[in-house]
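User: Predict the structure for this protein chain, please.
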Amino acid sequence: MRNLEARAPCFAAGARRRPALLGVGLAVAVVLATSLGLPAAGDPPAVPGFELLGKNAAGLAEYRHLGTGLVFVRLEGGSFEMGSPLGELGRFATEDPVHTVAVRPFLLSKTELTAGAWERIMGTRPWWGQNYSRVGDTFPATHISWNDCRAFAEKTGLRLPTEAEWEYACRAGSRAAYCFGSDVAQLGEYAWYEDNTWNRGVRAIQAVGGRKANAYGLKDMHGNVSEWCEDTWHADYVGAPADGRAWVDVDLDPRRVYRGGSWVFEAGTVRSAVRMCAAATFQTDHLGFRPAASLPAAGEGAGR
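Assistant: Here is the predicted structure, written as structure tokens:
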């Protein structure tokens, strides 16, 4: 892995040591259908500003955002355990303590936002001429700061996911290190990370959606590019909200959270629970964005 510490200050603080790879054969959590957030039988509800496309292989509704053309998965919400248990190999203190969070239903983009979509909507190419980036509708947008993502949200009526929403979506019901379990030998099936990119001489971001989806039908939640969240940085979860809302305190620490690891990160740093942060102006070749949208309460219109 490249030395990212000087470029991502929170990465240096929260993940300084090289994490041990997770062992093969660790127990995989048994997940009930209710904890997976599977929808009830019947037609998915209409969402203002979105076109219903049908249900994905996981049984969750998918919608196309009319303003951008992006495809979203409806996540039904529910309670989950956020953070990593003491026995998880490679974990950091920033993932403490494990706590129960109740997340409301919301929409999350099926893939990371692509460079082509960013250019069509925002009219800029911040990755142009930068190392390791690729362009077009296939590859994720990179070199976009948290501030850039907020500008995108303001223009489209979408938003950044909260950190709790992001982890809920990544886990897809799993309590293990990854969405599929803890067997690192399977990680390459679900993620672009150091072992199947940088270490093999493939030194660039990869096409979105090229790996297996998690149990919610979301792709690239582990690896490829890290993804900005709404929250400001907190060194641990002491005092964190229990309702899934963004935890924002710019006076305490104005840096913003990003999650998921990337194509240049080791296996231990693309786990579901890993947290990192950087200044809201920070841009790099391994950091992108996955838009979210709030679902309206009964009688309300769509919005954030």
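Confidence is low (pLDDT under 50) at residues 3-9, 12-40.
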